[in-house]
Specification:
calcium; nine-stranded antiparallel sheet; single chain; 257 residues; isomerase activity; Gal_mutarotase_sf_dom; mainly beta; Beta-galactosidase, Chain A, domain 5; four-stranded antiparallel sheet; Aldose 1-epimerase
Length: 257
């Protein structure tokens, strides 16, 4: 377990996963073992969304790739590259067509191994500042490599009437619950305010959209995404691709109490 500290803020990171963020002893991150989700954060890459109806196949410009829900990055282990008192950098590297064991097999998937058709590098950088927690994602690879990216953090809720403010729109927990597994779409949005016992602002750069998900009343996932996957049929997920321009692309998330 890795811990970052700055004044009244503390962050806990377990193998690249954000498992705690406290300010003045108030925990903002959903805790593993609590009802709702078995994780506290993860990344969705190089695709977002389910693939079961497409027989786990995703068409890329190079060839068909085999992907389970939200891609294969989450099945890979992070390597710690550097660490300071207020920051840490983790990295994953992948070579095209390398088989990656699918943790959903065989209970939730009939594909034991997944693969992508392009090389990529993926960095996750944490930085504590006076204003809050900054998380940076750097996607690298060859020019014109296709990808989608989503960040999937889960926030702990303390009150029964928590609300999410996106621009002029107020979204209730009941509305998110009603959508179910598809997740509630918040298009063309770079900033969300979570109003709970204490409020939290989630601001992003590079993503452009959010989706919201929960199945319980004690947590909510506020997920910056480059593409809302339920806008198309699963066999057409490639319509949501972005493409690397100069070998690397940077995305940012600021979590501000």
């Amino acid at each position: 377990m890795l811990e970052l500290k700055l004044e009244k803020q503390s962050v806990k990171i377990d193998a690249g996963e954000l498992v705690g963020y406290k300010v003045d002893a108030h925990e903002y991150i959903h805790q593993k073992g609590s009802p709702g989700w078995r994780s506290s954060d993860t990344e969705m890459f190089p695709i977002i969304g389910p693939t079961t109806e497409a027989k786990f196949q995703v068409q890329t410009p190079r060839d068909i790739a085999v992907q389970d829900q939200h891609g294969l990055l989450r099945e890979m282990e992070y390597e710690l590259i550097s660490q300071t008192e207020t920051g840490a950098i983790f990295q994953k590297e992948y070579q095209a067509h390398t088989l990656v064991k699918n943790s959903k097999y065989p209970e939730k998937s009939n594909r034991e191994y997944l693969f992508w058709t392009y090389d990529f590098g993926f960095q996750k950088q944490f930085s504590l500042t006076e204003s809050g927690l900054e998380i940076t994602f750097v996607v690298s690879g060859e020019r014109d490599s296709p990808f989608m990216l989503g960040y999937h953090p889960a926030f702990k809720l303390y009150s029964e009437n928590a609300q999410i403010i996106a621009g002029e729109k107020t979204i209730s927990l009941e509305e998110i619950l009603a959508v179910g597994n598809r997740a509630f779409e918040v298009p063309d949005c770079n900033e969300i305010l979570l109003k709970d016992e204490k409020q939290l602002r989630i601001k992003t750069k590079g993503f452009g959209n959010f989706m919201l998900w929960t199945e319980v009343s004690n947590m909510v996932c506020i997920e910056p995404i480059t593409f809302y996957p339920y806008a198309v049929e699963q066999r057409n997920l490639n319509e949501g691709f972005r493409y690397l321009e100069d070998g690397a692309k940077t995305f940012k998330v600021w979590i501000t109490p």
